[in-house]
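Case study B.
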Amino acid sequence: MSEASGSPVLAFEDVHLSFGAVKAVNGVSFTVNEDELFAVIGPNGAGKTSIFNVLSGVYRPQQGRVVLEGRDLLGMRPPAIARLGVARTFQNIELFANLTVVDNLMLGRHQHLRYGTLAALLWVGRARGQEVEHRRRVEEIVEFLELEQWRKMPVGLLPYGVQKRVELGRALAMEPRLLLLDEPVAGMNLEETEDMARYILDIRDELRIPMIMVEHDMGLVMDIADRVMVVDFGTPVAIGTPAEVQRNPDVIRAYLGGDPDVEAAVEAGVEAAIAAEDEGASA
Amino acid sequence: MTTLMKGTRWGRPELYTDYRQEMALLNTRSKKAGTIAIIALAAVLPLTVADDLLAILYAGLILAIGAIGLNLVTGYAGQVSLGHAFFVGIGAYTAAVISGDPDDRRLGYGIELMPVWLLGAGLAAALCGALIAPVATRLRGLYLAVVTLGLVFIGQYLFREFREISGGAEQSRRAAEPTLFGMNLTEDGAWTEEQKLYWFGLGLLIVMAVLARNVARSRIGRALQAIRDRDVAAGVMGVDLTRYKVIAFTLSSFYAGICGALLYASIGSFTPERFGLLMSVQFIAIVLIGGVATISGTIMGAMLIALLPRIAGELPAFVPFLSGSPSEHPNVFEFQEVMYGVLIVVFLLFEPRGLFGIWHRVRTYWKSFPFSY
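Model:
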């Protein structure tokens, strides 16, 4: 397993969550560091989304700790956790379909706008000043995600891939300290997937927001994630860089269901072959 | 150089250099010109229109204020309320009590100052709305509609039984009389009663409509629409559902109260039976016909609903099979009975976005004229 680089933003410590006899999350621990893109993979029903729901306060685990920048999130309600800076996108798009792209993004900034009903009625001073100020901030996100041509369109009318992008924008508008992406490229074609991968990398490298991503597209995960955690039946199988995880026999077993000894033998054979080839090349 | 600057200014009116321009209420030249033209036309109308029609138009203006309130809670926040008539009734009786004759056998404080009883009516209704709102945080959709329907019947009972206020069932009580700058608007003077009331109603509607529009485009209005479209996601964005539903009901009821206080100024009196289910349905009809979640649409809808009996009265001259006499069938009065229902059904089926939708389509067509795309 690779060493954590930088200081951890989030620590998930020995979390157990069960529904009756079903152990959805069974002793999962991991940390997410500054500027890190951390991916969670695993077969269907492995507990990936449950981990997200624990993080955003939808589920309350029986045991364990979830610490964001020194503060324990367990027991907090979703809006309180959102206020601390945890933003998320959803596996199935949860946008406000009748509102325009700009209004959806402005709703992401709801926490940051602070004026009351009376100021809203009169639209003077603080109300107008803040609306203009935050409209400018939202425009930065419009530009960042290249949503210019859709700005004033109700999001319900937009293509699926664009809606996914708007939802990412809405999460970014919250100025999160940690961003949770639940299957950001599910159902997308190759081109849309490549666009989304570019945006995710930009978020990590330019906006420097740490991210946790749940995704089934292995190609994407192995290409862009810094570290990967594999879960199966609620239990962590492996954590490491994509290369390390791919070589891990437990991971291969979880995905292919094969015999670990056979897999290990195959692995050894492949490595020996690669080594021989390398030798041949250098000679 | 000057022509170039002129070109950029006049040729591209929507080229904004500041978000303040883009976010203004009237952010295009045509919107500005159109609004000024409509207001000017509405302002000179009383000089040419007969007084009986003006009284109808006054009712339309005041209905529009009440309907804007309903649109805030039902159109924007998505909380279907059939109890709007209850809040209108609260407003009407509060205004009547505050301004009522203290020597009358019914309760009256004799405060004839309009700002006092008008605000009092609005605030009393708003308070009732705030008290009812917590129910809406526990119920959604049809269940909320049924509960608010119950409100209408409770209101009917209360208005009839509080005899010291209403006088009892079918007893009419004098409506509050609007006075402005020491001039009683319900007495003829240099201008007739109808003209003065109409101008007052127009001015008040413009103010109330602008306030509502401001709320709609603010963080409050966005939060309400977020709750309507997807309340779970709204919660994750940090929108406090309970708080915003209370705000929606409070604001809505305030508008209803103002509407109630002024609705009977031209007729002069009202009875408890006025605030029944039919009135609630009338408001729902205005919102649906005018356009859900639009302020300008609501005003159009209110004017249409107010004018409808009058329009129906003229119909026998144009529709051969419709009779003007009650002894023949089908007649105009039968038509009036069913027309709210018919209009609601027709609009929901063919133009769900209401009159605003029709207007929007016309505007889009002319924007790209002569090209159809």
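The longest strand of chain A covers residues 8-19. The remaining cases will be described in the next quarterly update.
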